Amino acid sequence: MKEKAKKNIVEVISILFIILFVYAAASKWMAFDKFQAQLSQSPIIGPFTRWIVWIVPLAELFLSILLIVPKWQVMGLYGSFSLMTAFSTYIIAITQFSEYIPCSCGGILEHMSWNIHLLFNLCFVILASIAILIRPAQNHFTLLE
To answer: 8-41, pLDDT tens digit by residue?
Structure first.
């Protein structure tokens, strides 16, 4: 595959993540009380709600910024891969080991079934993997240039 095509694929994937993360963070903050209440009901992460309600949306926005800046993009892709893997792991854990399953996702995502939501997340894990694998090797993890 030509370098220009690879770069374009990575850019499209990065834009998809930016849209997803900005939308998700905005949805969480626009319905902050609901987001916080639902997180506090989670049997897995409920005790950490006080921190997670801020960390997750801030992480989503931070990753969006990394994805926008070319020299930080690969770090943003690794972070996106990690965050979506964590979200997917949470869905698997909550559906397998809990009788009560609160949805703390915002916006349109909260209308998905847990199986569809897991599939959605796994698609983004795959997209991040593709972008990481095909992105040209220069500038990996360099913040200062």
So the answer is: 999 999 999 999 999 999 999 999 998 899 888 8
What's residue 108's pLDDT? 74
Give the chain as a DSSP string.
--HHHHHHHHHHHHHHHHHHHHHHHHHHHHTHHHHHHHHHT-TTTGGGHHHHHHHHHHHHHHHHHHHHSGGGHHHHHHHHHHHHHHHHHHHHHHHHH-S-------GGGGGS-HHHHHHHHHHHHHHHHHHHHHS-STTTT----
Q: Are 28 and 35 in contact (CB under 8 A)?
A: yes
